[in-house]
Amino acid sequence: MKFSVFTASTPDWTPSQAASTLAEQGWDGIEWRIVDDRTEDGSSGFWAGNRSTWQYTGIADRVGEIARTTEAAGLEYSGVGGYQPVSDRAGVETMLRVTSELGARQVRVTMPWYRRERERTGATYGELLDRTRADLEWAAGRAADLGVKALVELHHMTITPSASAALRLVDGLDPEHVGVIHDLGNLVIEGQEDHLAAFELLGPYLAHAHVKNARWVDTGETRADGSRIWRNEWAPLRDGQASVSEYLDALRQHGYDGWVTIEDFSTDLPLAERTADNLAYLRSLAPVAA
Question: Locate the Xylose isomerase-like TIM barrel domain: which residues (predicted)?
């Protein structure tokens, strides 16, 4: 396995700072976040004003700069963290082309958020699935033309929170050009299945692994019926409810030897200490995961 960092989790660094710092720490690769997220006041955060993010607008003209930044640090691409909805065919086309030109091999396309789309359009889950399948079939065809792979992430609140749901969407498409990102932390929130069983279920569609951690905490509040209210929050790799070591071991048992990309949204440690500590922790598990 090789280890990389998704730059959604490095909001304080510019792209060049992210690439050089991660390379110096010993990471194998980087997964660039590409989305329009500038803030009016210049503030930075994971999801808005992230300084490690390449803006989507004009991205086709910045491929050379991305390549130079990555290559200067001696990092590989674990993939591209795209945010274009699979229904946005022009946007997906752009991201597939950028991925191809970079030689980054694979790029995420985002899935519909179930409740949001149901409220907006009235579509049922089945209708959303059918619509998304048609869009993904189109994306698979374009990915094949460009020699890359479109990735579907397991993500809470979308139509693909679990491996089972994702398989229902991708089954029958060419796994050379459509794959699934299995995400340890997201599954703490929704979609949890036995990891090894999920890997075996996905089979050739298991294309990438994201690792972060999360936990459920008691809010101290109750509903009108007296039941307790819980909320989820991100946690350091060692402190969440999922076991990173057991996850890596399940990947090993399955024969997975691809990228493991960290996207740690906890803030217990300063950013540079957090990324360095995460790599040290992963390396400490290498005898288990090798």
Answer: 24-284
